TrEMBL record:
GO terms for cellular component: TAT protein transport complex. This is Sec-independent protein translocase protein TatC. GO terms for molecular function: proton motive force dependent protein transmembrane transporter activity. One of its GO terms (biological process) is intracellular protein transmembrane transport.
Length: 311
């Protein structure tokens, strides 16, 4: 009876523990709000950087792509703006980025035009937001890692660190693949079908930017499929043998269907151009997960996940 009484806590002790829990939750919420505020500030600073940074004040091999009075056409407004930029010697990064995209599209045979008053404004907004996301993403990820880091064990920290680095690397790889393969191929496909029909390819500038940015985002996200598969296997939610054999063929068809949906035109060539790299990354993720599980089982024989190799 005495031992039972000793185990019982007084109301004062319970109130102290409850107050400590509330204080602990309040502290974590305050730290989370600080992390979110820093991330928002970083994003808006990146917006200003992309919008206003004088890119022509630094040594750049792309200087010949900037606006000049000789290549902007005969429009009086365009000539005036080009002369003004040349006289001031100031070219913001957003102008340079949009100019590079426009010239790249023109070299494919597509003629970009300003369809309505807000078309050019929308194009600049999309370029600025996309550039700001790319620039600020590493800092934002770093801030959230700093917030989560103290609450994690050593193996969880290692897993999270490797996962974040792999996610960021694969997303950038997907962006690079989109802008070098998928987007140019999509525009060339449009030009080909347009010429076959005897039509000239004239696109609204904002539609061009939206097409390029959305295709890049979807391609970058699709390249994250191996990360999802890897951690599902590592966490024990999937077994490697479940992803092989007949299921591997089903996964191949599913990836090709996804590639056909997200690629412009949906033709066989464009589907294979993005589907094959995705499938290779998917299969590499299975192999890496198998290896990680095997190493974990060797280090910890009592590991709960019963690893079985083979198909």
């Amino acid at each position: 009876m005495k031992s039972l009484i000793k185990k019982l806590k007084s109301p004062f002790e319970c109130n102290v523990e409850e107050a400590e829990r509330v204080e602990d939750i309040t502290y974590h919420l305050e730290e989370l709000l600080k992390t979110i505020r820093r991330s928002i500030v970083a994003f808006f600073l990146a917006l200003l950087l992309v919008a206003l940074f004088p890119i022509n004040w630094v040594t750049c091999p792309l200087m010949h792509l900037y606006c000049s009075p000789e290549d902007v056409g005969n429009a009086v407004g365009a000539q005036y703006i080009a002369e003004l930029i040349k006289w001031i010697g100031y070219v913001p990064a957003m102008v340079a980025l949009l100019r590079i995209i426009t010239l790249a599209i023109m070299h494919m045979g597509v003629k970009p035009v300003i369809c309505h008053a807000e078309s050019l404004f929308n194009a600049y907004v999309m370029v600025i937001i996309w550039g700001a996301l790319v620039i600020s993403a590493p800092y934002i990820i770093y801030q959230f890692l700093c917030y989560l880091w103290p609450a994690l064990h050593e193996h969880e920290r290692r897993m999270l660190r490797n996962g974040v680095l792999a996610t960021f690397g694969l997303f950038l790889l997907g962006e690079l693949f989109a802008f070098t393969v998928v987007v140019p191929f999509g525009f060339e496909l449009v030009v080909f079908f347009g010429q076959a029909a005897g039509a000239q390819s004239i696109w609204c500038l904002s539609d061009i930017i939206e097409f390029a940015v959305m295709t890049a985002i979807i391609t970058g996200l699709s390249f994250l499929l191996p990360i999802v598969v890897y951690y599902l296997v590592l966490l024990g939610l999937l077994r490697p043998e479940q992803l092989k054999g007949r299921n591997l063929r089903i996964a191949f068809l599913a990836i090709m269907f996804l590639a056909a949906v997200i690629t412009p035109g949906g033709t066989g060539i464009s589907m294979l151009a993005i589907g094959i790299p995705m499938f290779v990354l998917y299969y590499l993720a299975i192999i890496m997960a198998e290896r990680a599980l095997r190493e974990r089982q060797q280090k910890t024989p009592s590991f709960e996940f019963n690893y079985k190799g083979g198909s």
